[in-house]
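Tutorial, part two.
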Amino acid sequence: GVLAGGGSVDGRRVLSPEAAERVREGQGGCRDLVLGAGFAHETEIGLGLWLSGPNGSYGPNPRAFGHDGFGGSCGLADPEAGLSLGYVMNRMGPHIADDPRKMALVKAVYSAL
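Running the prediction step on this input gives:
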């Protein structure tokens, strides 16, 4: 929520707007050498977070960002849409990233905006 709010949440400043923006500065697209087998495509990483990019992993905004957890969980933020989302489930799946359940939820959330 802090990152989706440009560094603020509930009227309280936690990060400067510049720091919140710096988090999603891409470091260049590539094949992840550690988790690469779990991805169907190249990824681009910001400062500890994956960028949605052209793959739409975190929605249609290529500047949205987040991080997936093994089994299907994820968190994402889209400052332009004022959106943040966290998803955990009670049954793990086999996916490292872009779990079909997560992707369906992201699509549904954006279609409701």
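The chain has one domain: 8-112. In part three we will examine how such features are distributed along the chain.
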